[in-house]
Predict the structure.
Amino acid sequence: MQIEDIFRNNEKWVAERLEADPEYFNQLSQGQNPNYLYIGCSDSRVTAETLMGAKPGEVFVHRNIANLAPNNDLNVLSVINFAVNHLKVKDVIVCGHYKCGGIKSAMQAKDVGLLNPWLRNIRDVYRLHKEELNAISSEVERYDRLVELNVIEQCINVIKTRDVQNALLENRIKIHGWVFDMRTGKLIDLKIDIDKVMQEIMDVYRLFDQED
Ligand code: CO
């Protein structure tokens, strides 16, 4: 695809939208009211809205390398804050994907320059789950499992924020961990038991008095 193609595609898309609904862009420009916050990987093959069949206005999207939510990253924290407090999304989704280059890179003894500190977040996930991961003899299965464990740990990172703790206390959001399998095209719900996760971690990460 050439740059000129992109603008031609855009014109075609505008024409199609207007043909289906002359008010389409008027409506779109009135504002957004998405129910979902999606935190996914920047990988060009994991096209958030397409794989979910979502329309413009339905999903607030944040993507970075390996779908991380470190609590010292102002970018992801701002997205979470805005989505949870202002857009009042009802569901927060962390979506990883098998064959993730970021995860693969973090599994190797390799200097990747500027990416070292970012990917170190994944090495930390590996260290937390080293026993389970090292017990998996198949490298492919170990790689897949780290993708899943990273999703779980990023859900925990999301829960570490006060914005999300407030929303969970008020029972107005749900957290979901998913994996996209590009080998089949399927979206897989890891069915993370968030209540159980909370019971295990909140004594450490709670940011409010229990009496609050
Ligand atoms: Co990726």
Q: What stands out?
A: The radius of gyration is 19 Å. The chain has a mean pLDDT of 96. The chain is about 50% helix and 15% strand. The pocket of cobalt (II) ion is lined by residues 41, 43, 66, 97, 100-102 (CB under 6 Å).
